Each structure stands twice: as C-alpha cells, then as structure tokens.
TrEMBL record:
The keyword NADP does not apply. SUPFAM superfamilies: GTPase activation domain, GAP (SSF48350), Winged helix' DNA-binding domain (SSF46785). This is DEP domain-containing protein 1B. Residues 201-393 form the Rho-GAP domain. It comes from the Eukaryota. GO terms for molecular function: GTPase activator activity. Pfam families: DEP, RhoGAP. The gene is Depdc1b. It comes from Baryphthengus martii (Rufous motmot). Keywords: GTPase activation. InterPro entries: DEP_dom, Rho_GTPase_activation_prot, RhoGAP_dom, WH-like_DNA-bd_sf, WH_DNA-bd_sf. One of its GO terms (biological process) is positive regulation of Wnt signaling pathway.
Length: 529
C-alpha cells in the first residue's frame, strides 16, 4: 500500500490515524516466533514494530524524517491501548508497550475509526457585512449602488460637462463606519481568505467562526512594534520579566549582558529548564484548543510551501494577542538556539533542534481531548514554524491592503446628479483576468455599441426636443462616439432627413433686374425671325 498525502479538511486527524494503521498493518512483517518453549504464528517483536513504524513515518510526507524513535514508541503505546495491536495472549488496553523483545500481533477485527457524518450543505461563501443599509430609525440619506438603464436625458446630463455645462449635483456621504463595523469587515474578509486558501467549501467543520474575536484580528494587525512583535494593551498579560530575561539569555548567547556570566557548569541547561517549566504550567496551548483543527488542516498544505505560509499567517492572526506575542517570542528563541553554534549542548543524547521540538511542541499545539497523533502533528507544525517563523508570524500584507481598500471604498464620498437615480462612483470589480485582443474587441462591440446605438436612435427620434437641442446633442454624441454615429448616419443626406427644410415662396424675378446697369441692350438670337 502506497502512502498518500492527506490534505486539509475536516477530521484530518482521524484520516491520518486510519492511514497510519493501514500502512502499518500492510507493511509489518509477520512470522513465527518462539516464547517460553511455545511457538506463535503471525506475530512480531516490539523492537521490530518500532523499526518498521519508524521507517513508515519517516518516509510518509504527512510526517517526515524528523519523527524520532521515542515518538514512535509513544504511538505504539496508543496502538496497544486502542487495540490496534495486542500481545500474544490477547491482552490490550494499557500503555505498557516497551522497545524490547515482547511479542505482539494484530487483532482480527479492523481498528479503523469511523468518520462523523458530514452535514449535507452546498458551498458556503462567507458574507461580507453590508454597511450601505442604514440602521432602523435613522433618517440619514442613503443612495444604493445599482445598475440603471441610461436614457437620453440622463446621458446628456452625464456628458454635458464635455461642452462646458455642469448639471446640478450634490455630494452624498455614506454612513460613517464605526470601529465595530471595521472589525467585522476584518473578520469576514480574513475568514473568507482562509477558507479559500484551505480549499474548503465551509469552515464550519474545522472552526466555529462565532468564537473568532474580531478585535483580536485588528489588534494583531496594527498593534505591533518595529520587530513585528505584538504590543499588548493589557500589560498584566505580558510575560514575566524574569522569563523574558531567561529567553533573551539563551536566544542571544553569549552576547546577552542583562544576566551575570554563569559561574558554574550547566548554567544554560538550568535556564532552559526554567523556560520549559514555565510554559508547561499553561492551562491551554499557545495556538488554543479552539483552533486545533484549523492548524491540523494547514498541515495538509506543507507540500505547497507558499500556500502553507499564507494559511498559517492568517490562522495566527486569529489568536488572542497575548498568545500571538508569546508564540512569536518562543519560536524566535527556539530558532536562534537551534542555529547557535556557540551555545553549549543542552542535552547529551538529543540534538538541539530535536530537543526544541520535543520540549515545546505540546505547549504550542495539542487538542483538548488528548488525541493519538497529537505529538506527531504538533512536532510537524513546530518544525515548520521554526524554519519559517519570520514570514508566518508577520501580518500578511496582501490581506491587509485589500481590507483597507475595501474600507476606504465604503467611506468614499458619492455624487448624485439631479434626475439620476444612481451613484457616480461605482465600485471596481473584485477580480479581473487578462483576455485576448479579439475577445476584447468583441466584448467592446457587444457590450457598449448596441446600447449606444439605441441611445442615439432615441435622441434622433425624440420629437419633444427642439431642432437646436437635437443638433447640439447629436454633435456631442458624434464627438464622443464617432464610430457609432457613422453607422447610423453614413452620409450627410441621412442626417439631413432629420431636419427637413420648409418651402418658402420666392418673389418673381423682373426682367430689368437681370440686366447690368448701363449695359446696352443686345439683340439675341431668340428675337430673330
């Protein structure tokens, strides 16, 4: 059985659990073993199970080569507890698995977990709040933006500025946005972008959006210092000074000077243990229990580096500001310690990077109800965080700019012309894509010339306009849209039909008026006989 990438979505932890069990049952060699003068068919030693599962996890792109032997043993203990495996006497239910020569086997029944029933629902699009609608009971004037069929009178008022005439108009201000309105816009657009990046039809199965605090998103986006670290409004939620000093001591070793130089061997290990103990006392991980499923879903995007970065950027914006700040400081310290060659080893048996992941991963991500793959999932996420913490823990600039532009548009002044039931300032399209020249010409002809031709025909056939006004409007139309005008009036004669000349009686011409003065009369041939 070939391993497959389990992408983002609901119940990802359950899908991964079943995936690993299927791979383990298919890949674990089974053979005959003897124990205490008795033979057992189709079983395996505990140490053989550790070797096999460690190799499977390391080659699986859902977990990767950073999985340790100790983590594999813990997972096999959970396999024994959940009856994925049993000892040769059929006993299971306890986590007493050890990396030794004890014999185990697979039970005959399948231990796969069922998936919860997914509610049938169509593709959900997160709705943005409509701030154009006035609140009940307010008398504030409001102009709705809507499409309108433009007649000749409206067209003339819109385009008369070209000949120096400006119709009466007035400025209409949209309803002023409150801070609560802006926060709701941030929440709606942030969640909508997260749903799009994760590629989900709905966020409901991985996140209860009602529990997302819009104030936290805005504070995380704007209340930052020059280093991009969140600044807290409530100073009582700051990390204690002694913990900050200890973290700076190891992160900047050996150049940090707030603390006196160590006077005994192993000082740096004691400082590290103090930091681990402090974060271990927290009642909830830094990424919170509520967002566990979201971050587990993001793990399915790690093969697509840029998408994973963006998804984690947005997800970390949802955190409470105090959690986000602690995460920023902790992950930065972990990354610096891992790459600091001047820092003495903090463990005799474990590499520094592995020690960072093992020591803090559970305090960064875990579920409220302890799950079987918590440790492996959190280790995978923390490793990715350490490698990309500067990008992930910064505010996504594209999201921020798009939200700010949307807010500015909602606050923009509108112009209302007298007699026109529409806004002069129309919002730009949300998305656009490049098209070919031929397609553009076709759209321009089909989308603009036909309505303009109808408008020209209305001006030409309007009997209520005086001749002077009609000529004036036709001249203006000809100047603005010469191609449309040429199709309707290809020759001057076709235009002259609109303005027939009136028949006037001419006075009789006298014979003497034809003669030039003082010119003698000459006989012409018509007088000859």
């Amino acid at each position: 059985m070939e391993p497959r990438l389990v992408g983002p979505g609901p119940y990802r932890a359950t899908r991964l659990w079943n995936e690993i069990i299927e791979l383990f049952r298919a890949g674990m060699p089974l053979r005959k073993h003897r124990c205490r003068f008795k033979s057992y068919e189709r079983c395996f030693k505990a140490s053989e199970a550790v070797d096999c599962l460690l190799e499977l996890l390391g080659s699986n792109q859902n977990f990767g080569p950073e999985v340790t032997r100790n983590q594999t043993i813990k997972l096999l203990k959970k396999f024994l507890k959940n009856h994925v495996i049993e000892d040769i006497k059929g006993r299971w239910g306890k986590e007493d698995f050890q990396d030794d020569g004890h014999l185990y086997r697979f039970p005959p029944s399948s231990p796969l977990r069922p998936y919860p029933k997914k509610p049938s629902c169509g593709k959900e699009v997160i709705k943005f709040p409509d701030w154009n609608e006035p609140k009940a009971g307010t008398s504030q004037e409001h102009i709705l933006v809507k499409s309108v069929t433009m007649n000749s009178e409206m067209w003339y008022k819109r385009h008369s500025i070209a000949i120096g005439e400006v119709p009466a108009c007035k400025l209409v201000f949209r309803r002023e946005l409150t801070q609560a309105n802006i926060e709701d816009i941030w929440k709606s657009m942030t969640l909508s972008r997260l749903q799009k990046v994760l590629g989900l039809d709905s966020l409901d199965e991985v996140l209860d959006t009602k529990l997302v605090n819009s104030k936290h998103i805005v504070q995380n986006a704007y209340n930052v210092n020059k280093q991009g670290i969140v600044t807290l409004e409530d100073k009582s939620k700051e990390l204690p000074h002694w913990i900050l000093s200890a973290m700076k001591c190891l992160a900047n070793w050996p150049s940090y000077s707030d603390l006196k130089q160590p006077t005994y061997s192993g000082f740096e290990r004691d400082v590290f243990k103090t930091i681990v103990d402090y974060f271990g006392q927290m009642k909830e991980p830094l990424l919170t229990f509520h967002f566990f499923d979201v971050f587990v879903s993001v793990l399915g995007l790690l093969q697509k580096h840029s998408k994973a970065i963006e998804a984690l950027q947005i997800s970390c914006l949802l955190l409470p500001p105090e959690n986000r700040k602690r995460l920023q400081l902790l992950v930065r310290m972990m990354a610096r310690i891992s790459f600091n060659k001047d820092l003495p080893p903090l463990s005799e048996s474990v590499r520094t990077r592995t020690l960072m992941v093992q020591s803090f991963s559970r305090y960064i991500l875990c579920s409220k109800d302890e799950m079987d793959l918590d440790e492996l999932l959190s280790a995978k996420l923390v490793s990715f965080l350490m490698d990309n913490y500067q990008e992930i823990l910064s505010v996504p600039s594209s999201l921020k700019s798009s939200i700010e532009e949307h807010v500015v548009h909602l606050q923009r002044v509108q112009i209302k012309y007298a007699g026109a039931d529409t806004d002069a300032t129309l919002p730009p399209p949300s998305f656009c894509h490049q098209i070919s020249t031929d397609e553009f010409e076709y759209q321009r002809a089909a989308g603009s010339q036909e309505p303009l031709a109808a408008l020209l025909e209305e001006i030409a056939m309007n009997k209520e306009l005086s001749v002077k006004d009609k000529k004036k409007r036709l001249k203006q139309f000809q100047k603005s849209y010469p191609e449309v005008y040429r199709v309707r009036f290809p020759t001057p004669e076709t235009e002259a039909v609109l303005f027939p000349e009136k028949n006037k009686q001419k006075p009789p011409i006298l014979m003497w008026a034809l003669k030039k003065p003082f010119q003698p009369f000459h006989r012409t041939r018509s007088f000859r006989m």
